Fold:
Amino acid sequence: MLRYVRIVARSCVVVGGFFGVVILPACGSTPAREAWAGPEVITGSGALLTVEGLGCPMCAESIHVLLENVDGVADSEVNLETGAVDVTFHPGASVARSDLASAVIDGGFSLRGIEGKD
Amino acid sequence: MSITTHARRALLLAGLVWACAPASGQEANLSEAATQPAKGRITWREQARFTRYELADREVNQFVLNTRLTLGLSGRLSAVLDAPVISRDDRLDGALDADGLGDVSIGLKYRFWQDDRGAIETRRLAVFGGVRVPTGEPGLSGGGVDPYLGLVFTKVEGRHGLNAAVRYRVSTDGRASPIMPGMGGADLLTVETGYLYRLSPVSYSAGTEGSLYLTAESLFDYETNGDLEWRLAPGLLWEARRWAAELSVVLPLARSIDERARTGWGMAAGIRVLF
Structure:
């Protein structure tokens, strides 16, 4: 029994100390889906999204595939360096902002802005 | 290599300091990361690992083909399955030869904190846990249902990436003469750090199809019976949009082993495919 108490105590110290060092300087939040909720739709040729939290080519592919699954979206192009995502709609399509936002957030990224294209 | 208790503690501290070293990501070849596939997507990772073990006057070569499937359940939660197929060759007299399916691990990873500060700038924390389920294969299975719990931090900033993870696995059974760490009756504490530097391209563009990374990983194992090992693993990672290829060499840096075989050098090569 004493052995397990020691094990638990040691692991708590190690885990707590380790992540205390990492977490303390940090401040921030997990991306909020609620910020993009609502019935507002975007019409026109497409939308420009500003995304943060990318890190690798697979990140770009994840967003690309998730956006392609949104009703009305025909194509998308992700610029990893700037976080700009150029989304092209099917002609005449109306796409809900919340659907575009969900695609980004379900990919594990943060959405900072959505603008409709003419 | 004989190390006193104080030296062991110093080594443990050094390993933790290394793990906590500030750096600025992506997923390295051998260490955990606070990243996961998007909701509904699957990552298939096939990794071949060669490791030389030394047990008294024996040299044991072990080849592991590990299959890892990761399913994105949501933007924050993923399920992970690890299934290693092991082939072990005892070069002295074949007494430790073994072939078959090693213990299978199933678990979950939940990213509970994320701070994105730019297009290529993110910090993430995830908790992960699960169980290692015994297959009962003679010589390859630990024999118990062993739960594990861990925390992992990932930071990506421009061309730099850091992953740091700590994991604790409780041993509920264990072999009498284990070869690998965590296969005996002692619990296993693992501290892993992976640093990645993007060699190419210097800057991303909309047309970027892949990236080449230099990786450097620190792998630290401490067992509650006092055994400890610290290994370094330099390597390369090529990551395209739907697949990645990885190659690492594993080098023993320091070790103090009494209860099992000592881990020598090794190599790991693998591929990952995003579905």
Observations:
- The domain at 34-117 of chain A is CATH 3.30.70.100 (Alpha-Beta Plaits).
- The longest strand of chain A covers residues 110-117.
